Amino acid sequence: MADIGMAKGAEERGHARAALDADSVREAYRRWAGVYDTVFGGVSGFGRRRAVAAVNRLAGPRVLEVGVGTGLALPLYRRDLQVVGIDLSREMLEKAKERVESERLGNVGGLLEMDAEHMAFADGSFDIAVAMFTASVVPDAKKLFAEMSRVVRPGGHLLFVNHFAAEGGPRWWIERAMAPLARRLGWHPDFALRDLLDPEVDAVERMEACPPAGIFTLVQMRSPDAPARALAAE
Ligand SMILES: C[S@@+](CC[C@H](N)C(=O)[O-])C[C@H]1O[C@@H](n2cnc3c(N)ncnc32)[C@H](O)[C@@H]1O
C-alpha cells in the first residue's frame, strides 16, 4: 500500500486537471442518479461492504455517512447504529429516501442535503464518519477531511474507501489521461491519498486493499483531537 501513500498530491502533479465545484457535482449526480446502482453498484460493492463491516465492528452509536448517494450502504449497518447521511445531490438523496422507506430502515435518522465541506453539525456530533467513493468527488478533499475530523468526537473514527491514484505504470498513464474529464465524470480519476490527508502525519490505523484487483483501498483512522487539528490548520 506504500505506493498509494507515496503518489503525488494535486499540487505536485502539475498536469491538466479539470476542477470540480459544487454545481458540477450536483449536475453530474443529477445525471447519474437513475443509473448509479446499475453502473457502479456492483464494482463498488466489495469496498462498500468492507467499509460498513469495519464500521459495524466499532461501538458507535452515532454514525455519519458523507456522500450517502443512493444509500446503497444503508441496509448494511448494524441496526443499533444511528445513521445520518448527507449529500449534495437532491436526486441521489431521493433514491436513498426511497430505499429507507422500502427497506424500513428505522435506524436511519436523517438524510440531509448538505455540503460535506461546510457541515451544519456541531463539533463532536458523531462517533464515526465514513465516506465511501466520495473523497475523489468532493471539490476539496482536504476540507472534507477537516470537516469529518471536526464533527467526529476526538478519538472517534474516520473511514474512507476510495480509488487512489497509482504511483506509476500503465494505470498511472490512464488516470492521468482521464484527469481533464473530471467535470463530466463527476470524480477525479487521478485522486491521490495525499489529496485527502498526509499519511506521515495523520494517524492512519489501517489500510486495506479491496477487490476487485485491489483498485479500491479502505483507510481507517482516529479523529485527531482539537489541538492537533488547530496545529494542522496553521
Ligand atoms: C460516487 S458517489 C458515492 C455514493 C455512495 N457513497 C456509494 O457508496 O455509492 C459520490 C457522492 O458524493 C456526493 N458528494 C460529492 N461532493 C459532495 C459534497 N461536497 N458534499 C456532500 N456530498 C457530496 C455526490 O453527490 C455523490 O452522491
Structure description:
With 234 residues, this protein is an alpha/beta fold. It has one domain: Rossmann fold (3-Layer(aba) Sandwich), CATH 3.40.50.150. Helices cover 35% and strands 21% of the residues. The protein has helices spanning 2-6, 10-13, 22-32, 36-40, 45-56, 90-102, 141-151, 169-178, 182-185, 226-233; strands spanning 62-66, 82-87, 108-113, 126-132, 152-162, 204-210, 216-222. Strands 3-2-1-4-5-7-6 form a 7-stranded mixed β-sheet. The two termini are 29 Å apart. The structure holds S-adenosylmethionine (SAM). S-adenosylmethionine binds next to helix 3 and strand 2.
Compile the SSE list and pairings.
Layout: H1 2-6, H2 10-13, H3 22-32, H4 36-40, H5 45-56, E1 62-66, E2 82-87, H6 90-102, E3 108-113, E4 126-132, H7 141-151, E5 152-162, H8 169-178, H9 182-185, E6 204-210, E7 216-222, H10 226-233
Parallel strand pairs: 1-2, 1-4, 2-3, 4-5
Antiparallel strand pairs: 5-7, 6-7
The structure holds S-adenosylmethionine.
Residues 25, 29, 44, 48, 67-69, 72-73, 86-89, 92, 115-117, 132-134, 137-138 line the site of S-adenosylmethionine (SAM).
Mean pLDDT, to the nearest integer, reads 85
C-alpha termini separation? 29 Å
Oligomer: single chain
Stretches where pLDDT is under 50 for at least 5 consecutive residues are none
The portion of residues forming beta strands comes to 15-25%
Helix segment count? 10
CATH fold descriptor: Rossmann fold
What percent of residues adopt helix (DSSP H or I)? 25-40%
Structural class: alpha/beta
Order of strands, widest sheet: 3-2-1-4-5-7-6
- Which CATH architecture? 3-Layer(aba) Sandwich
Number of strands: 7
Q: Can you summarize the main beta sheet?
A: 7 strands, mixed
Q: Which CATH C-level class is it?
A: Alpha Beta
User: What would you report as the Rg, rounded to the nearest angstrom?
Assistant: 17 Å
What is the CATH H-level superfamily?
Answer: Vaccinia Virus protein VP39
Please tell me the total number of domains: 1
- Give, in order, the helices and strands: HHHHHEEHEEHEHHEEH
